[in-house]
Amino acid sequence: MSQERELYLPEAEHGVLGAIMLASLGGNQALVDDIVGQVTSADFYHLDNAALFDAISDCLAQGMPVDPVTVSAVQRLLPSGDLTLVYAATISDNVPSTANAMVYARHVREWAVLRKIIDIGRLAAHQVAEGAPAPQIIAEAQQAMADLRDLQAAGKAGYKRMADVIPVVLDNMDNVLNDKAPPKLSTGLVDLDKLIGFLRPKSMVVIAGRPASGKTMLGLQIVNHVAIRGRGVGLIISLEMGEEELTIRTIASQGGIDLRRMEEVKCLEQDEWNRIGLAASQINGAEFYLNDTPGMTMASIRMEARRLQRERGLDILMVDYLGLVGTDAKSQNRADAVAKVSIAMKNLAKELGIPVLVLAQLNRNPAARPDKKPKSSDLRDSGQIEQDADAVILVHHDPESEAGQQGVTELILDKGRQAPPGSCLVQRQGQYARFVNFAGREPSWEEVEQGRSFADRARGRKNNG
Known about the structure:
Layout: H1 3-7, H2 10-25, H3 29-38, H4 47-61, H5 68-74, H6 84-94, H7 101-129, H8 134-153, H9 162-177, H10 190-196, E1 204-209, H11 215-229, E2 233-238, H12 243-255, H13 259-262, H14 270-284, E3 287-291, H15 298-311, E4 316-320, H16 334-352, E5 356-361, H17 384-388, E6 391-396, H18 402-405, E7 408-416, E8 422-429, E9 434-437, H19 445-450, H20 454-459
Parallel strand pairs: 1-5, 1-6, 2-3, 2-4, 4-5
Antiparallel strand pairs: 6-7, 7-8, 8-9
């Protein structure tokens, strides 16, 4: 029996999908609602099945009947490259009735829980092999088990008494009090951590700015910090920059190498080569992944993130940038297409249980203001982005001002669900493709390196660097 066969029941996943289409065709909307209320796309192991469930959910959200034709209109191709119409029709034909629909749904959820248990064991074994402290392994396993309880409960009634939630809240508070809670993810910038209250699981964090403001630099640096300094697992979906450029920027940031000097290889001095070697060594030891495939759709982004999370774990995801995410529906106007992507990004953050950094562009409105400061309402293409975001960080760098010429950049938290609006200053080191903590002057490379205690704040591990 293959490993894939052991990790899920194909008949159960097909049975759920086929039963939904049959129930919709027969006008049994109550059964459709019951089935959809029991499972989520994250419960499906096979990526094509998960994508088909997403297409079915989109049809239901738009008030459309669910059948092979309608789901193929929503999403023409599946992650495997197969036609949605053919795949959905085959499943619908092979499921004889809806009689066992709820049994199929229960099996799908049970296997999702089993896979989660296996993942928890693999993660603990990996951390032991890496030499992580026992208290940290236990704390993260406890959090994973708490997430597992959430997974088991998700298929039950959607409503519950608030009194039933109180024990969970108090347990979480007790874990924090007794240092048993998983460490919070840090951005690596002290004042930004204070501003946003660290990076929260299941949150969609929008980083926006005008071109050349430094939004990509900030997002890349945060993922660098989590993956390299914090020993986490990071994934960047880059629809703008290529993988080589991102890697060069990371080497420059980690090693303190001038980007312009890295293009003049024959002129590099031995000290610079040493720094490049050190940075490359840090990257080699990190769980840091890139995908620069152009025109990726939300279905393909979700597929990549889910696969990495299943195989290696995943602590943070960055998408650069939202406006370049491909869409399947050609008839949608620009605002509707971007709004749909934004909603999908928010749902993905909740599904994966991690912070998702979504980079976005601003319109030209800030340039007309006396202080040139941006607002969340300046987000380009769709107001849905501001609505979906748990936090909106606006990168404001005015190269025409005296402070801007010195590299001073303001990070503005214009929206935060769990933090009040505010701002902080950081020092832009454009030549090194990074920001550093603001201290009234630009610190030297040595000072920056000596002041980095990133790993302790991000994942609770001691920085051995």
